[in-house]
Amino acid sequence: MFIFFAIVLTIYTLANIYIYIKGLRALDGHLSAPVYTIIFLSLASLFIAGKILERSSNSVMVDILNVAGGFWLAFMLYATLLLLLSDMVILIIKLSGSLPAEKVALIRYRAFIRVTGLAVIIITGGFINSVIPATTRYTVKAGGDNGGEKSYKIVAVSDIHMGTVVRRRSLRKLSSMIKKENPDIIFFLGDIVDGEINPVLRDDLLTSLSLPEGAHTLMITGNHEYIGGISRTTSYIEDKGYRILNDEVMVLENGIQVVGRRDRDSFRFSGEERKSLDELLAETDPSRTVIVLDHQPPLKGSRPGGDFDLMLSGHTHRGQMWPLEHIVKRIYDSSDLLISSFASSAP
Q1: Which CATH architecture has domain 154-331?
Q2: Which residues contact 86 (CB under 8 A, 6 or more apart)?
Q3: How confident is the model over 153-166, as pLDDT tens digits?
Q4: Domain ranges of the chain
């Protein structure tokens, strides 16, 4: 954990230093250095301040800090990429000898302003996209017997991240989307809570999630359930009547067997080793339909063992922001279908 947070903090610090220096040079003569420094440090500290205060304080102000800090993270990513690109363009022009020395400062200023504006536009578009969730539908033929029924409708939801950003309105929207599908089974694939449980408890957010009656509803843990303290988080969820599968197998009334895995990061956060997939599948009947729920998809090059029909995962957010999806595809062996290609029975 120390190594993980050290790497994250190092990247965060270096990116902010780079943007700060570029802005300081570009805005020289347009904005005083002390004013610029105060503004920049205030923005750059939002995310860290929000995460620190979230552990001890539970207020709307902390929510605002976290939301603003999230926007700053996005700005930091795109500003860094765009500034690097502008640096390369300026360097090429300088090396070509077509850029007079007296115009370098003006070019830097214009590049910084345009980069800032473009980053803001990209972030705004991303935010609008995030508040308009989409439903994707797939038809999957399972190889095992499912009790004689011809078909079931499953709704799979992952990475809600209830907390400072996802509040009641988002959960009511999600509830409406789920009810519209009229599912037989509902799976929540982890990261139901966004780390700290305090913002969830303040407004008892899970009560805003209204699901259709009669549907089997099962949940598994994600890495974010462990970040805020697994005991407090799971206790809260289970107190609301939801069933969390924690390295166990449940057979539904229709005969479908559901394998719910503990999150892969359980050892990193709590020292608890999870069962292997083979151990869990040994508890199932391979002649019947088996669905595996695992928050984090298999890593690239790894092959989960055993015999199952369908694996559903979340975690990756598809990279969440370009170009991170290309990194995700190199790390995780998953597809847009969220369907494992490792099932030894029929696809």
Answers
A1: 4-Layer Sandwich (3.60)
A2: 111, 112, 114, 115
A3: 999 999 999 988 88
A4: 2-130, 154-331
